[in-house]
Amino acid sequence: MAKSKPLISVVDDDESMREAVRGLMKSLGYTSEAFAYAEEFLSSRQVPRTSCLIADAQMPGMTAIELHRHLVAAGRTIPTILITAYPDDGAQKRALGDGVVCYLSKPFDENDLLACIHSSLNV
């Protein structure tokens, strides 16, 4: 039986960014699902299947770090990459201290994101 491709879930309230990252993941050979909000992701059937989560740090409702903490508290440790248009050293330090794998500023280099994904998936 063939091993299924890792699922990369993308959560970003900016539709163009969400679709761009989802498209990039698919072009790199990953399965990818996109969600507009953290709550939409949490209520989906994809949570248990997700191998890596890419989330926008600043979203209406639940922020990406709150989403990460919620998943960890629920016993679902999904490697998480935060992306942000508003980089903040303090927020970055807290996120990395909470176990977030990477914290990237928009616009980010595709190779940086790919390195983060490889690190997350231990590829």
How would you characterize this protein structure?
The structure is a single chain. By secondary structure, the chain is α/β, with parallel strands linked by helices. The protein has a single domain (7-121), classed as 3-Layer(aba) Sandwich (Rossmann fold). It is built from 5 helices and 5 strands; from the N terminus they run βαβαβαβαβα. Strand 3 (50-56), helix 3 and strand 4 form a beta-alpha-beta unit. The protein is globular. 31% of the residues are buried. The model has no long low-confidence stretch (mean pLDDT 93).
Summed up:
The protein has 123 residues and is an alpha/beta fold.
What would CATH call the homologous superfamily? Response regulator
Helix content range: 25-40%
Shape: globular
Order of helices and strands: EHEHEHEHEH
- Overall pLDDT score: 93
Tally of structural domains: 1
CATH architecture: 3-Layer(aba) Sandwich
Total DSSP E strands = 5
Biggest sheet character:
5 strands, parallel
Structure annotation, total helices:
5
List the helices and strands and how they pair.
Layout: E1 7-11, H1 15-27, E2 31-35, H2 38-42, E3 50-56, H3 64-73, E4 80-84, H4 89-97, E5 102-105, H5 110-121
Parallel strand pairs: 1-2, 1-3, 3-4, 4-5
